[in-house]
């Protein structure tokens, strides 16, 4: 855009001005604000901000007329003053609504959308274009735009607006609390929390409790994956808590204390305002079994899964692994979710995505207008999922139950998946010394001209899960060919393996003295092997049933050792009942049943009906 500052120099060099800029990125990252600041820094007239859907009209020809009306003031001034005319900036928000690829709108029988694109192309770089117009397009879906718009002479400068990094989040928080600081409405502890940088604050520098919980090192570090709009919402939420507290302090005379935002208000707001990307990460964590994914029997699979997510030395790679469970409930989904969340926890991945077949079907139905799910619709849904994952510089993607996709889709969906897994990722370029979301071209005009550009390392790790019993030999071979690695997740085939899985569970479902007895009973119930999902489901229900009976028959004055022994007996008895083999281990005495009226449904009166599950669901074919 330097030619705008020196029109005479541009004429001497024989070059034309840049006529268009495309800003793309996730919602709430400040694309509209950056476009306005760009117009202000260039000394342009008040920009015209137009939402793309507002241009469309029910009457044929009205949409094209509105496009011409946007350029009319600039053309009139250019005809009258030439190079002396002021710059006119047109900001087209949600540009993908009016500038989609021509011929892609299947429901547009009148051809209005294609005609709007043609009109926009001719106005930006037609026969008689004006040199005092700068079009700034804003979109979340740049891949939908017509290719003719992206060529030099039109939207030739294309910038990706990323989520802010820690330094950027701190600057944004400072901007939104500027008025609070000036008016003395920001408490010192809140100001220290906002001004701190996670890489510059020593551990313990801000160490004190707020509502019984320790403060984070910095608010910028605690707001990872927050966009600019979400950070603004965080500050508004904290301010509302301060205003409510001030209103509650109103005295009968009408006086009340001044509203002051404290660190406690910020931390409370942090529990209410969650980032969109963070919500997706939490969805992955919820998929990860809270009882763990096993210990020694999954050691090889855990190592292979983590090896896939080690950052590669080169940029722009997609690495993939297929997790094949030996049977239903082997824990492939939990293992993939655990590996993805573990990589995110260590900071190697910036985005974590979990996609199930149901979510893919929902996307496909939305794209097809609620009609039946077609192979092409599933292919488009897969493409959208990979596009969202690649929007993060370093991301992990979990495709759950990929074998079911083969049944729902066809050859096109599988071919699309293979193409997406082999497609390289374009590195994200940004000016060195600047945050990735603030390219140098949008920065201050006084920025040094010798700034260099660096490419951020971009990679995508894809985990896909399936079950061997649902795969044919042909499908298994096709899937193995698509992925870089194949990781086999076995079932638990021995009492020792079951015992190890129960002992290393972080939730400690069963008492330690019960585990060996329980492992033998579970291994006998599933002679062909048991998956971790079924294992922990049995243990969880047995523990819940034993706890309920223990609470109902609690005897006062019992020592801690006696209560622990009693709970161990109850857990083992409940486990035998869950497995359909009601018997008692040697040395254990059946708990005393309390006399209660027998329920009408015939169930035992010492446990609620909600704790009694059909045994056929648990034992399956091994009953």
From TrEMBL:
Question: In the record, which residues are listed under signal peptide?
Answer: none
On the tree of life, the source organism's domain of life is: Eukaryota
Q: How is the cofactor bound?
A: Binds 1 Mg(2+) ion per subunit.
Q: Which UniProt keywords apply?
A: ATP-binding, Cytoplasm, ER-Golgi transport, Hydrolase, Magnesium, Metal-binding, Nucleotide-binding, Protein transport, Transport
Q: Which GO terms describe its molecular function?
A: ATP binding; ATP hydrolysis activity; metal ion binding
List the subcellular locations. Answer: Cytoplasm
According to its UniProt record, the EC number is 3.6.4.6
Annotated ranges, domain AAA+ ATPase: 17-165, 317-493
Q: Which cofactor does it need?
A: Mg(2+)
Return one Gene Ontology term, BP aspect: SNARE complex disassembly
Query: In terms of one coarse class, where is the protein primarily found?
Result: cytoplasm
Q: Which InterPro entries match?
A: AAA+_ATPase, AAA_lid_3, ATPase_AAA_core, P-loop_NTPase, Vesicle-fus_ATPase
Give the residue ranges for region: Disordered.
589-623
- Read off the SUPFAM superfamilies from this record: P-loop containing nucleoside triphosphate hydrolases
> What's any one GO cellular component for it?
Golgi stack
- Known Pfam families for this protein? AAA (PF00004), AAA_lid_3 (PF17862)
Q: Does the keyword Nuclease apply?
A: no
Q: Which reaction does it catalyse?
A: ATP + H2O = ADP + phosphate + H(+)
Family note:
Belongs to the AAA ATPase family.
Q: State its role.
A: Required for vesicle-mediated transport. Catalyzes the fusion of transport vesicles within the Golgi cisternae. Is also required for transport from the endoplasmic reticulum to the Golgi stack. Seems to function as a fusion protein required for the delivery of cargo proteins to all compartments of the Golgi stack independent of vesicle origin.
Under the heading PANTHER family, the entry gives: VESICLE-FUSING ATPASE, VESICULAR-FUSION PROTEIN NSF
The protein in question is named: Vesicle-fusing ATPase
